[in-house]
TrEMBL record:
Family (UniProt): Belongs to the glycosyl hydrolase 56 family.
GO molecular function terms listed in the Swiss-Prot or TrEMBL record: hyalurononglucosaminidase activity
InterPro entries according to UniProt: Aldolase_TIM, GH, Hyaluronidase
GO BP terms in the entry: carbohydrate metabolic process; hyaluronan catabolic process
Any one cellular-component term (Gene Ontology): lysosome
Residues annotated as signal peptide: 1-20
Official protein name in the record: Hyaluronidase
Family annotation (Pfam families): Glyco_hydro_56
Record-annotated membrane-spanning stretches: none
Keywords linked to the UniProt accession: Disulfide bond, EGF-like domain, Glycoprotein, Glycosidase, Hydrolase, Lysosome, Secreted, Signal
Positions annotated as active site in the UniProt record: 132
Length: 479
């Protein structure tokens, strides 16, 4: 059938595709599930001639696998401006507490640092600020961080020696939280102005403080901590990404459900905080590790599911795999890491990212990511092993390459629709939307009110019966 000259006839059509909106965002937010490598493993190649070859698992990493680069840059305390804090011996650095430091001087220095460490004009990677010396909510500066209470009160005492302890603490808290907010808020605003397409946020925020305890552990974030996170709405509003952590400590190694609960509620709290931001919800990238903290013991398969898999199932944009230089210090440790990546971590990442991509195509027309309809359902974005196979073969280098083989069945589609929903990428909208479809219409048709209805009914019938088989040049989707 030859194509007729198209006349634009708007037909309301209900669909689950995502419609385009005007929005500028990082390309990293337009991926169903992203894995980012944030570990300094450059020595693997330079010292031992061993290439981790992370690309075969679609793991995003910087050139030479450094902490600072085009895909991810992490700013530690000394790398971004004049971050006020106390040193290990209690000596003040840049004023100690934020209210005793110059915000203006900090921002000038931070601007220079951003241009130094992120020279790329159109940086679209992750920009993570890692400030851990103090917390912007007064009550959270417990244990060794109490020095910020004392430093803040000392400043007030020096100005008002006749005030009562209660008056001093009230004023100290107000001054500290106001200045702390200004330092964090203005730093992110500066970063977003300098590199507007970067994903700016603070590492470790939000935190759930749902640490494991041996009795009656539910994993839920304490109510008081959720309220304190609500006080940080200003931080979520200026963040273009959130970076909570889901690190697992060594005592959790032999636990099962407790690990699931711990990670589940930490990720959920980050998603809840992101939902408070306006006008756009920042994507969530939990920080995870492939080993238990302060050890060289790798996560079990189950714990990879509870960290990486749970992040994907709850709708996170991806995970950041952080690591220090412990494994690159010896060839034996490095070879052990490669074995784990090849045999356990890599195949699991291929599984999750492939399943996330299939779900995105199925539910979101590849313009969004899937997340559980019910957060507590326990379903995961995993390939069905009875249908999908992850095949590997050795390359000349000795490393393995992976391919995913299988076919999506109708019942798989039905299961996805039942268990997951679509969360559109920035710049796209709609769980459902009404769109205009351009139909080929005979120019001889008379569009008077009396004759329109029969012709329209015929066109609708033709649409539903033949749309899937129309030659591509014969219809024009709404853009």
């Amino acid at each position: 059938m030859s194509c007729l000259w198209p006349i634009i006839l708007p037909v309301l059509h209900l669909t689950q595709l995502c419609s385009a909106l005007q929005s500028v965002s990082s390309s990293f937010t337009q991926v169903p599930f992203l894995t980012v490598w944030n570990a300094p493993t450059a020595n693997c190649l330079s010292l031992y001639g061993i290439d981790l070859d992370l690309g075969m698992f679609d793991i995003v990493h910087n050139q030479n696998q450094t902490f600072i680069g085009d895909n991810i840059t992490i700013f530690y305390a000394e790398k971004l401006g004049l971050y006020p804090r106390y040193g290990n011996q209690g000596a003040p650095i840049n004023g100690g507490v934020p209210q005793n430091s110059s915000l203006e001087e900090h921002l000038r220095a931070a601007s220079d640092d951003i241009r130094l460490y992120i020279p790329t004009r159109d940086f679209q990677g992750l920009a993570v600020v890692d400030w851990e010396s103090w917390r912007p909510v007064w009550e959270r500066n417990w244990d060794t961080k109490q020095i910020y209470w004392e430093g803040s009160k000392a400043l007030v005492w020096s100005k008002h020696p006749d005030w009562s302890p209660e008056q001093v603490e009230t004023a100290a808290r107000m001054e500290f939280e106001k200045a702390g907010r200004q330092f964090m808020e203005e730093t992110l605003i500066l970063g977003r102005n300098e590199k507007p397409n970067g994903l700016w946020g603070f590492y470790g925020f939000p935190n759930c403080y749902n640490y494991y305890k041996s009795t009656n552990y539910t994993g839920e974030c304490p109510t008081i901590e959720r309220k304190r996170n609500d006080e940080l709405f200003w931080l979520w509003n200026v963040s273009s990404a959130l970076y909570p952590d889901i690190y697992l400590s060594l005592p959790l190694r032999d636990l099962d459900e407790e690990v699931y609960l711990y990670c589940h509620y930490r990720i959920l709290e980050a998603m809840r905080a992101a939902s408070q931001a306006t006008p756009q919800n920042p994507p969530v990238f939990p920080y995870a590790r492939i080993v238990y903290t302060y050890s060289l013991d790798f996560l079990s398969q189950e714990h990879l599911v509870y960290t990486i898999g749970e992040s994907a199932a709850l709708g996170s944009a991806g995970v950041v795999l952080w690591g220090d230089n412990m494994f690159s210090k010896s060839q034996v440790k490095l070879l052990k890491e490669i074995l784990v990546i090849d045999e356990t971590l890599g195949p699991y990442l291929v599984n999750v990212t492939s399943a996330a991509a299939l779900c995105s195509q199925t539910l979101c027309s590849s313009h969004g990511r899937c997340q559980r309809r019910s957060a507590n359902s326990g379903v995961y974005l995993h390939l069905d092993p009875s249908v999908w196979k992850i095949r590997s073969h050795k390359k000349p280098t000795g490393r393995r390459d992976y391919k995913v083989l299988g076919q999506l069945r109708q019942r798989d589609v039905a299961l996805m629709k039942a268990k997951f929903t679509c969360n559109c990428y920035p710049g796209w909208s709609g769980d459902r939307f009404w769109s205009e479809i351009f139909l080929p219409v005979n120019p001889a048709l008379s569009f008077t009110p009396l004759t329109l209805l029969p012709d329209l009914m015929l066109l609708l019938f033709t649409l539903f019966m033949q749309l899937s088989s129309l030659p591509e040049p014969c219809w024009y989707p709404c853009i």
